[in-house]
Structures are given as C-alpha cells and as structure tokens.
Amino acid sequence: MSEEEPGNGWANEGRVGRIADAVSIILKELGEDPKREGLKRTPRRMAELLVDCTRGYTQNIDTVLNGAIFHEDYSEMVLVKDINIFSLCEHHVVPFFGKVHIAYIPRGRVLGLSKLARISDMFARRLQVQERLTTQIASAIQNAIEPLGVGVVIEAQHMCMAMRGACQPSSTTITSAVLGCFQSDSRTRAEFFANIGRRSALGGA
Q1: Which of 2, 27, 30, 145 is placed for a possible disulfide with 109 were both Cys, Cβ 3.0 to 4.6 Å?
Q2: How confident is the model at residue 157 (pLDDT cuts 50, 70, 90)?
Q3: What DSSP character marks residue 126?
Q4: CA 137 to CA 141: how far, in whole Å?
C-alpha cells in the first residue's frame, strides 16, 4: 500500500506538508508574507485542520458501528435529536454546522445510541452539501439494520450564506430524508416531525 492511500494514514507528514505548501501559495497570492511571525505556522495549522475536518474519508460504516448492533424485540420509534455536526461546504470549503435529528423503527435489531452520532460525524467530516449528507445518514442506517423506516432531519447554518454572497447570518437550512414507513405512513412521519418540534413538510402533519 502506497503512502497516498488513506489506509496508510491520511494525516501523514507527506500529505500535511503538501497541503501546507499549497496554503503558502494561497497566502502569497492574497498579498501576504507567509514568513512573517503571525503566519509562519499558519500553513501547517491549516493543513492539519483540513485533514482533521475531512477525517471521514478514512472511515467506513463497519468500523464506525464496530459490531454495536443488537437483537431486541422493540418496534416503536427510536429517536435521538440535537446531535451536533460540523462539516465543510464543498463549494467554498467553509463550515456549515448544526443539529441532526434521527429516528428509526426497528425490525428486530437496534443500534447502540452513540453510533447514530458517529455515523453522522463520519459523513459530516467530508466535503459535503447538506442535502447529500442527510440522505447518506439515512441510507447508512437503513442498510445497517434494515429497520421498518428511517427519518433524518438536519438544521444547519452555512457560513457561505452568512459571510459572503447573500450575507444572511440568521438563516437556517433544513433538509429531511424519510425512508420506509416514514415515507409511506403519514402518521409515522407526523410523529417524527412533532417529536423534533417540526411540522411535516411532506404531508400528514
């Protein structure tokens, strides 16, 4: 396996060094002096930051779940809300951050509750768009335990909306993904949205 492959360690010295070199070029093109005192270590700091904020590329669902799937005779809704996420917009590489609400109805198997947060973090720690992030989280849970249905809602603030362009720092973007009975049964969907304090945008609320 070569140094370039993530399996050999994404945050290796070679990769951090190359990113830092690129940051130095950016600073120069902005009219700055990367060698001045306040910026001497900025290229490396930014390189390490980017590697950490995109660590989700080195993770997969099997290692994240780590076997935390349990047989349980429970068939009511499981809901974990207000999971914090931090991600980078793939269009401008600036942060977006907010809360994820996840619910599912088991079909004989449940996930360790912390795994819902870890799944969310794995997909968030990549260059993302919120719409795709929402569906990736829902699909990963559906594929992992094949529940009767899954619902995911993300509420996030985007720095690309707040500090540039439209300059709307108070705006919140809300996305949802519903699978299985959350999609087919309006009562299940309505219960989910009510439990997270939202009216269903998909009918039945």
Answers
A1: 145
A2: very high
A3: S
A4: 6
Q: How confident is the model at residue 3 (pLDDT cuts 50, 70, 90)?
A: very low
List strand residue ranges (DSSP E) for 94-172, in order.
Answer: 95-105, 109-111, 127-128, 149-158
**What Å distances lie between residue 200 and 10, 188, 191, 195, CA to CA?**
40, 10, 9, 11
Structure tokens at 37: 């005192």
Tokens found for residue 181: 């009975």
Nearest to 154 by CA among 90, 104, 81, 93: 81
Question: Across-strand partners of 80?
Answer: 102
Query: What's the rounded Cα separation, in Å, for the pair 199 and 76?
Result: 20
Cβ–Cβ under 8 Å, residues 104 and 149: yes
Residue in this structure with the two tokens 């519903």, named with its chain if needed: 178
Task: Give the residue numbers marked as catalytic.
Answer: 89-92, 130, 158, 160
